[in-house]
Every structure is written in structure tokens, then in C-alpha cells.
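lol forgot to send this yesterday, sorry. C-alpha cells for the thing we talked abt
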């Protein structure tokens, strides 16, 4: 039982007691004798008793009502602060996206992809890495499960891969029997085609992007002041900010090891966070195999 409900119950109890006491006393034969003249001394005693006993009860009720009102007001203030912080984080999300500046992965193209266009480049890069891992897995018959394939490709996509960085990536994928071997194959492919920078790092732009996103959802989800319906509506507002390429990267992010907390808290399913991902847009994997939620194209 929370404090608000507890106070309300106490107020009701004292209010009922005070009301019953009021009517009991004014109709009591002790003080009122109908048809007789008023006894001034008795009336004086009645006034003292009434104000002392019943008046005290109503005073207690009044004080409790003030406390209840202040507590309710405090809840509303804290709730407004939480929602306000959520929208600040949403503003930061949009600002973060606007600040992105990403050269094309093809070094022969001099285009600079800004804002959400950067995620188109992210998508192209990650897709190529996934294709390489899938192809090598099939050729060598490693029998890697889908999540392992995604995790290895996403590690390289996120941290980048070159000859000076391979030991770090190998440590990350050492949990998989064929992880380091697959990373070496990826490095060979990257080194053999320097014109396409599929081994470049993307952690600088994406680290704060996903931390802020997770923090905003966690802020709303863990709030005890916001109703479940209000939580869904707030997360829906955040979801509406995401472009299709952003949803693409988000999907693979939460399937990789970076999605551990997301999945532990069930955020993707609970709030249908990738609901707007178009059918077939994830290319090589079906989101439905990982998150059984109603997708927009199915409605």
C-alpha cells in the first residue's frame, strides 16, 4: 500500500468517526431534553465538550487533508520532472542524430552523409559485414547460430577492424569456437579491398546514441509515478522519431551482446520498439524470429 492510499484511508476513517460523533452528541439525551428550557450550564459544558472532542477530530481530518494535498502535489511535480527529463533526452537524441557527419564507405565517393543519412551508410556497412560472415560460415560449415553471426559482424561494425586492432576484437569474439578465425577472414577481406571501408569504427557516434536511448526508456519504465498506458505512449513518441535505417541498426544492436540489458528488461517486446521496421528491411534475418511482436506491416 503506497502513502497516498494510506493517507486517504486514514482521512476517510477519521472523517466517518468525526461525523458519527457529531450526530451522536447533538442528539444525545445527555445534553438535549426536548420540550424543556435550555440549561445554560449544561449548554456551556456541551460547547466545551463538543469543541474539544468533535472539533479535534475535524481538525485532525483537516490536517490530514492538507498532508494528502501536499503529497499529491509532490507526486505530480516529480512526475512532471520525470516526463520533462524524458523529453530532454528525446531532444538530445534528435540533436545527436543531427550532429552526425559520416563519409561514404566508398572512398571514391566524396559525399558526406549528415544526420539520418549517416544511418544509411551504417546499414550498408553492417549488411556487407553480415554477408561476409554468413558466406564464410556456409563455406566452412561452422554451423554458427544466427545470434553468433550477428554478434561477430556487429562487433566489427561497432569497434572497427584493422591490423592494429585485431587483438582487441579477438578478445571480444573469443567466446565463440570459430570467432577469431572469422575475424581473421574479415580482416583479409577488408585488407583486400581498401576502397570500401567496411572495417571502419562507428563507436564514436553510436555509443552515446544508444546509451541515451536506453536511458530514456529505462527512466520511463522504472518510474512508479507514470501509469502503464502513459509509459507506452511516451515510448511510442520516442519510437516515432526513428527512421528505417535507425531501426535496422537498432535491431542488430539489441540482438548482439549490446542488447543484453534491453532483452533482460524486455524493452523491445514490452514497448514494441521495433514495430515500425518494414517487412524484409532487415535483409538477412527476420526480426519476427527474435521478437514476436505485431509489426506495422502486419496490421
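and heres what i got for the seq, position by position
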Amino acid at each position: 500500500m503506497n502513502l497516498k492510499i494510506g493517507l486517504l484511508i486514514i482521512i476517510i476513517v477519521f472523517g466517518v468517526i468525526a461525523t458519527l460523533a457529531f450526530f451522536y452528541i447533538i442528539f444525545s439525551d445527555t445534553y438535549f431534553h426536548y420540550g424543556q428550557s435550555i440549561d445554560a450550564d449544561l449548554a456551556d459544558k456541551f460547547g466545551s465538550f463538543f469543541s474539544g472532542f468533535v472539533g479535534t477530530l475535524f481538525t485532525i481530518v483537516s490536517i490530514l487533508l492538507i498532508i494528502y494535498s501536499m503529497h499529491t502535489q509532490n507526486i505530480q511535480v516529480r512526475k512532471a520532472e520525470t516526463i520533462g527529463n524524458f523529453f530532454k533526452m528525446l531532444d538530445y537524441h534528435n540533436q545527436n542524430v543531427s550532429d552526425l557527419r559520416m563519409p561514404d564507405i566508398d572512398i571514391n565517393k566524396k559525399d558526406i552523409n549528415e544526420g539520418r543519412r549517416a544511418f544509411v551508410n551504417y546499414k550498408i556497412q553492417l549488411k556487407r559485414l553480415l554477408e561476409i560472415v554468413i558466406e564464410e560460415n556456409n563455406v566452412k560449415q561452422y554451423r554458427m547460430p544466427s545470434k553468433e553471426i550477428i554478434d561477430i559482424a556487429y562487433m566489427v561494425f561497432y569497434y572497427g577492424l584493422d591490423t592494429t586492432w585485431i587483438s582487441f576484437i579477438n578478445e571480444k569474439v573469443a567466446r565463440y569456437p570459430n570467432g577469431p578465425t572469422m575475424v581473421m577472414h574479415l580482416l583479409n577481406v577488408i585488407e583486400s579491398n581498401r576502397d570500401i571501408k567496411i572495417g571502419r569504427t562507428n563507436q564514436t557516434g553510436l555509443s552515446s546514441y544508444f546509451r541515451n536511448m536506453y536511458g530514456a526508456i529505462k527512466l520511463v519504465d522504472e518510474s512508479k509515478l507514470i501509469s502503464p498506458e502513459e509509459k507506452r505512449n511516451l515510448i511510442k513518441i520516442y519510437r516515432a522519431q526513428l527512421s528505417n535505417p535507425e531501426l535496422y541498426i537498432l535491431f542488430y544492436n539489441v540482438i548482439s551482446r549490446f542488447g543484453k540489458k534491453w532483452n533482460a528488461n524486455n524493452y523491445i517486446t514490452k514497448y514494441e520498439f521495433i514495430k515500425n521496421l518494414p517487412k524484409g528491411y532487415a535483409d538477412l534475418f527476420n526480426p519476427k524470429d527474435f521478437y514476436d511482436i505485431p509489426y506495422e506491416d502486419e496490421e
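The chain is about 65% helix and 0% strand. anyway ping me if u want another try
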